[in-house]
Design goal:
heterodimer, A: alpha+beta, Mth169, Chain: A, 3 strands, B: alpha/beta, 9-stranded mixed beta sheet, two-stranded antiparallel ribbon, 11 strands
Chain lengths: 86, 226
């Protein structure tokens, strides 16, 4: 068994408003000199540490946990799962 | 008539709800800790407001996995009246007993203010004493109170008469200004505003009678003469 770090990023689906991201963009970044930025989205990240046989199993296990326990709400959120060697 | 008030770690409106049920409406109410079971012969269940598990991960999601939720699901299927207020509403949504989801308010602020609701469905066990479109002055107190449903679900809610309360004006960015919904059968109702903070004239600066009708509706539904 190998230890992996699994990062779960939860963000709003396109079309679901993200007022925090909009405020960071409009009232912080664009008020400075960084005019090339067009979009900022906020997200929540959960970092799992997990022991599994390989990366693929680690990813599918975390995906299963997220779905089973409704770690993210599929009505409004999308999730990205990235696996790294610990 | 026996009413259960479910208590989760972080519930903080449970005593207000219990007080209103027992001292104002003379009901036989009892607290039920979220790890306990509910009696099969209970007549109604109320999930009060608060901050279960400190709103960690998402308001209501951790409490939605509490052992008592299985009992609440069974009672809901039997048609027992169930009311979720504020965090109780968030828990019912996260447990899949009610449609939709509650997001952070559009302003990102915790909102604590008086609002006006419009009754859109007066057939539920908690609204049967209202006239349709009757106005209810009532306070909200939440950070994640923006009700959201996608367009298809909204159409279904309208078609099945599941929208119970709407704000009379834009408050927090909720879809269709929705403040409360019910399941298709109508016995499970969730609402973001706090009726337990509005039924006594001492703490209601506008009119305490409309909020009282929420509890009086339950009494009528159960055939109780107080």
């Amino acid at each position: 068994m190998t230890t992996f770090n699994v990062h779960v990023t939860i963000e709003n689906k396109p079309g679901i408003s993200d007022p925090e991201g909009d405020t960071i963009l409009n009232d912080l970044v664009l008020k400075g000199t960084h005019k090339t930025v067009s979009k900022i989205k906020t997200a929540k990240m959960l970092k799992f540490t997990i022991k599994e046989k390989d990366k693929k199993i680690a990813q599918s296990k975390v995906q299963e946990i997220c779905a089973e326990l409704r770690i993210y709400n599929p009505m409004v959120s999308i999730v990205t799962i990235d696996v790294f060697d610990a | 008539m026996k009413v259960g008030v479910v208590v989760f770690p972080g519930s903080n409106c449970d005593r207000d709800m219990y007080h209103v049920l027992t001292d104002v409406f003379n009901l036989d109410a009892q607290y039920y800790w979220h790890e306990k079971t509910l009696p099969k012969n209970i007549d109604a269940v109320i999930l009060p407001g608060g901050f279960s598990y400190g709103d960690r991960l998402r308001a209501g999601i951790i409490a939605a996995h509490s052992p008592i939720i299985k009992d609440i699901q069974k009672l809901a299927e039997k048609g027992i009246p169930i009311l979720g207020v504020c965090n109780g509403f968030q828990i019912l949504v996260e447990a899949g007993l009610l449609p939709g989801v509650l997001l952070k308010n559009e302003s990102l602020n915790f909102m604590c203010e008086w609002t006006n609701l419009i009754v859109e469905n007066n057939k539920t066990p908690f609204t049967n004493q209202f006239k349709l479109h009757e106005k209810i002055p009532i306070p909200i107190a939440n950070g994640e109170g923006r009700y959201y449903v996608d367009d298809d679900t909204l159409k279904q809610l309208k078609k099945k008469n599941q929208i119970v309360f709407r704000y009379n004006k834009v408050v927090n960015g909720s879809s269709h200004r929705i403040a409360g919904v019910c399941n298709q059968e109508g016995n499970v109702v969730g609402m973001m505003p706090h009726p337990e903070r509005a039924v006594e004239s001492e703490i209601n600066p506008v009119d305490n009678k409309p909020s009282s009708l929420i509890f009086e509706s339950l009494l009528i539904k159960m055939g109780v003469n107080n």
